[in-house]
Amino acid sequence: MAKQFDVVVIGAGPGGYIAAIRAAQLGLSTACIDDWKNKKGGPAPGGTCTNVGCIPSKALLQSTENFEHAGHGFADHGIEIQGLSLNIAQMQARKEKVVSQNNEGILYLFKKNKVSFFHGAAAFVKSSEDGYHISVNGDKAETIIGKHIVVATGSVPRNLPGVEFDEKLILSNTGALAIDAVPKRLGIIGAGVIGLEMGSVWRRAGANVTILEALPTFLGAVDEQIAKEAEKLFRKQSLDIRLGVKLGTITTNKNGVKLEYTDSEGKAEVAEFDKLIVSIGRLPNTSGLNADGIGLQLDERGFIAVDGDCRTKLPNVWAVGDVVRGPMLAHKAEEEGVAVAERIAGQHGHVNFNTIPWVIYTSPEIAWVGKTEQELKREGVQYKAGVFPFAANGRARALGDTTGMVKFLADAKTDEILGIHIIGPLASELIAEAVVAMEFRASSEDIARICHAHPSLAETTKEAALAVEKRSLNY
Ligand code: FAD
Ligand code: NAI
């Protein structure tokens, strides 16, 4: 017999599981269906983010950053280490433990909030002229009916035409996170977020990393001044970044991967790698839903078509996260999940796309919110800029990490903050103050007048705000 719920969520990534929890908190009977399997075939809720995205990548970034500090940074503190080595099997085992702790945590949260969890693949099944139900094809077949359906099926890695992922030589994010021995020569296609994070992990572990990027500019979406600084620092770390390349044939053999390409000057080149990571963006995941069968409309790029409130063209069917337009970020998916659950409950959920922060977890980290300087120029907005370097911050010196800067962009007339851009230590944490400031439509003077603890990295934010009026105190 069909099981009935007020809300049925398909997908338990950050968009789906958060939508389900919020709906249950609001008193709605809620089910969440997810097909991800752990190594034993059991449920592994959390989606891409928990299983092969945000969480495992940050675990490996932390392990390899510790290794790098132990190898280079610690000597400066008088900490001498002999016979340093990196045990990749142990590093991967730790990563897997972190992932499974998160999987277990979500299962616990479902129980705590009385969300009914179904492990299996969900599809829409047409059952009458304008009716449908959800079938779950898991250990046990189930039929589920929901007054509201929230689709949160996420995204999948995009492959190069004709070059399939085998996860041994040609790796997507899944294979890139599971490498079991440091490759001598690691190639990466795409100098985007995954390319830079995974490149950093395996470079720190000892690989020679070459990143081939089609575009002629490095990190085009990032503020130009910050991107320039990042490019300089990454090259200094010996990430071999080649911009403006055009890929030719890619073949695999028992020794690895052979890749033909032309460089930015049109010169033909051949490169050979032990492994190749392909990180050229991700595609919305709607396969298996039977979207066509019930008339769930996709846009021209394959995303589920939604309005500003995440409503699809079908009544009471919503979609959130990577499967709809907008940045493919876990926190964007979560915010949409909460907003949709609240709308279903008759409230007025809202997601402010202007204040969604971005973070790239390289070393140094890069984080930003709001407009870049080049965007403001393009849009003809009159603005003031203030920059403060970490080199002038006492806490950064004590930490032994003085790379980078904080940059404020504020409206020339009103002083409202339009964008904040950070490259430097713990930029991922510092950006939270910037987001709060922008969400409350603060002026740069508001931040400049707030007391910040000393010594702290956060003082760079205050000083950059002061720099907007050319009155930094420590620079
Ligand atoms: P997903 O997390 O993809 O979850 C969708 C879930 O639905 C999956 O479990 C999937 O198996 C399931 N599903 C799909 N179809 C069905 C079906 N028919 N039936 C049942 N279940 C189904 N973002 C950040 O904000 N910060 C980061 O640091 C970060 N790091 C990343 C690192 C990597 C390597 C990658 C690849 C991504 C990273 N992201 C990061 C992006 C982030 O992972 C995604 O934006 C986020 O996971 C999207 O959440 P979602 O809920 O929309 O989809
Ligand atoms: P991306 O969009 O960040 O970068 C892809 C890069 O590949 C671009 O620079 C693009 O120009 C390049 N490219 C595309 N086709 C190419 C080709 N044929 N040859 C050479 N270069 C080519 O995508 P990526 O890195 O795959 O990540 C996917 C998404 O996952 C990100 O956009 C982001 O939304 C999310 N993510 C977020 C993270 C974070 O928040 N820290 C970490 C990792 C991923």
Structure description:
Its EC number is 1.8.1.4. It is found in: Cytoplasm. This protein is α/β, with parallel strands linked by helices and 475 residues long. It folds into three domains: 3-156 and 283-351, FAD/NAD(P)-binding domain (3-Layer(bba) Sandwich); 170-280, FAD/NAD(P)-binding domain (3-Layer(bba) Sandwich), CATH 3.50.50; 355-467, FAD/NAD-linked reductase, C-terminal dimerisation domain (Enolase-like, domain 1). The chain is 33% helix and 26% strand. It has 14 helices and 21 strands. The chain has helices at 14-25, 47-52, 54-76, 88-112, 173-176, 193-205, 224-236, 291-294, 330-344, 373-378, 394-399, 427-439, 444-448, 459-468, and strands at 3-10, 30-34, 115-126, 132-138, 141-151, 155-157, 170-171, 185-189, 208-212, 240-242, 246-253, 256-262, 268-273, 275-278, 282-284, 317-319, 358-360, 365-370, 383-389, 405-411, 417-424. The strands form five sheets. A five-stranded mixed barrel has the order 1-2-3-4-5. Strands 7-14-8-9-10 form a five-stranded parallel beta sheet. Strands 17-18-21-20-19 form a five-stranded antiparallel beta sheet, with helices on both faces. The longest helix has 25 residues, at 88-112.
Proportion of beta-strand residues:
25-35%
Helical residues, percent: 25-40%
Shape: globular
Task: Supply the CATH class of the largest domain.
Answer: Alpha Beta
Number of domains: 3
N/C terminus separation:
71 Å
Multimerization state = single chain
The count of strands amounts to: 21
Predict the CATH topology of the largest domain.
FAD/NAD(P)-binding domain
* Mean pLDDT level: 97
* Total of DSSP H or I helical runs spanning 4+ residues: 14
* CATH homology group of the largest domain: FAD/NAD(P)-binding domain
Which strands sit side by side, in order, in the main sheet?
1-2-3-4-5
Low-confidence stretches: none
Rg computed from alpha carbons, rounded to a whole number of angstroms: 24 Å
Largest sheet: 5 strands, mixed, barrel
**What small molecules does this complex bind?**
flavin-adenine dinucleotide, 1,4-dihydronicotinamide adenine dinucleotide
What CATH architecture of the largest domain would you give?
3-Layer(bba) Sandwich
Indicate the structural class: alpha/beta
Main location: cytoplasm
Catalytic activity: N(6)-[(R)-dihydrolipoyl]-L-lysyl-[protein] + NAD(+) = N(6)-[(R)-lipoyl]-L-lysyl-[protein] + NADH + H(+)
Subcellular location: Cytoplasm
Organism: Keguizhuia sedimenti
